[in-house]
């Protein structure tokens, strides 16, 4: 079966849990963080807050440390969202 592709991943290769969230392997998580840190839209704390707002996750922004270096902030976002769901 051909699955849709996103950033080089086939949707079919992800492991979904019972509530529809994606469980990422460590290597996939590292790749996701590496891809996201290159997005200029996530380069500043303010832009990270705005992206979360646009994604409908604005209420989570105060709970996540969005400041500091891009790599660290993106890792915080991915970690928090994987725990929150």
Task: Give a verbal description of the structure.
This protein has 85 residues and is mainly α. The chain has one domain (5-84). It has helices at residues 26-37, 45-54, 70-84; strands at residues 5-6, 9-10, 15-16, 22-23. Strands 1-2 form a two-stranded antiparallel ribbon. Strand 1 and strand 2 form a beta hairpin. The longest helix has 15 residues, at 70-84. It is globular.
List keywords for this structure.
85 residues
Topology:
Elements lengths: L4 E2 L2 E2 L4 E2 L5 E2 L2 H12 L7 H10 L15 H15 L1
Antiparallel strand pairs: 1-2, 3-4
Helix pairs in contact: 1-3
H and E string: EEEEHHH
Helix content estimate: 40-55%
Mean pLDDT: 79
Number of helices: 3
Content-based structural category: mainly alpha
Q: What portion of the residues fall into strands of 2 or more residues?
A: 5-15%
How many runs of DSSP E, i.e. beta strands?
Answer: 4
User: What characteristic shape results from the CA principal axes?
Assistant: globular
User: Strands of the biggest beta sheet: in what spatial order?
Assistant: 1-2
Radius of gyration: 14 Å
How many independent structural domains? Answer: 1
How is the biggest beta sheet arranged? 2 strands, antiparallel
User: End-to-end span in angstroms?
Assistant: 28 Å
Low-confidence stretches: 1-14, 16-20
């Amino acid at each position: 079966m051909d699955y849709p592709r996103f950033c080089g991943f086939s949707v079919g290769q992800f492991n979904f849990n019972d509530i529809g969230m994606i469980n990422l392997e460590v290597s996939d998580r590292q790749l996701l963080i590496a891809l996201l840190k290159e997005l200029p839209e996530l380069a500043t704390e303010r832009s990270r807050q705005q992206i979360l707002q646009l994604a409908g996750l604005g209420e989570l922004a105060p709970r996540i440390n969005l400041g500091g270096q891009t790599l660290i902030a993106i890792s915080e976002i991915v970690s928090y969202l994987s725990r929150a769901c």
